[in-house]
């Protein structure tokens, strides 16, 4: 057996820059999900946020700033009568009607 193969079996892996890294176990997606689901709700939420940010590159602060900007824009439009406000009862009835049409 080649030295690299023995190293991998013993928990060692080569690294691109020539260093060798020690790892303790390799978990697949199913094992990671199972372990994540055992976390308390707050930790699962933070993990989901971290994973989302790793894919989309947005930090929580950037998202909060984007929402604050959007809220200010909407308030400004409402104050200037650029948009027409619709009572909740009307919005709710329209939404329920749309659901009824889809369901048949």
Can you walk me through this structure?
This protein is mostly helical and 104 residues long. It has one domain (3-103). 65% of the residues lie in helices and 6% in strands. The protein has 5 helices and 2 strands. The chain has helices at 3-9, 29-37, 41-56, 60-79, 88-103; strands at 12-14, 20-22. A two-stranded antiparallel sheet has the order 1-2. The longest helix is centred in the C-terminal third of the chain and has 20 residues, at 60-79. The N and C termini lie far apart (66 Å). The relative contact order is 0.04. The model is unreliable at 5-10 (pLDDT under 50).
Largest sheet: 2 strands, antiparallel
* Uncertain spans: 5-10
State the total count of DSSP E strands.
2
Q: What does the average pLDDT come to?
A: 81
- The portion of residues forming beta strands comes to 5-15%
Order of the strands making up the biggest sheet: 1-2
Termini gap: 66 Å
Note the total helix count: 5
Q: What is the N-to-C succession of helices and strands?
A: HEEHHHH
Main structural class: mainly alpha
| Overall body shape | flat
Q: Tell me roughly what share of residues is in helical segments.
A: 55-70%
Indicate the radius of gyration in whole angstroms.
Answer: 26 Å
Number of domains: 1
Provide a compact summary of the structure.
The protein has helices at 3-9, 29-37, 41-56, 60-79, 88-103; strands at 12-14, 20-22. The chain is mainly alpha-helical.
């Amino acid at each position: 057996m080649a030295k690299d193969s023995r190293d991998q079996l013993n928990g060692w892996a080569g690294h691109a820059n020539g260093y060798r890294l020690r790892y303790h176990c390799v978990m697949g997606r199913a094992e990671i999900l199972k372990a994540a689901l055992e976390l308390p709700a707050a930790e699962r939420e933070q993990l989901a946020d971290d994973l989302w940010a790793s894919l989309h590159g947005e930090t929580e602060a950037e998202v909060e700033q984007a929402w604050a900007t959007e809220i200010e824009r909407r308030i400004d439009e409402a104050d200037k009568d650029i948009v027409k406000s619709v009572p909740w009862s009307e919005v709710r009835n329209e939404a329920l009607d749309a659901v009824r049409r889809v369901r048949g």
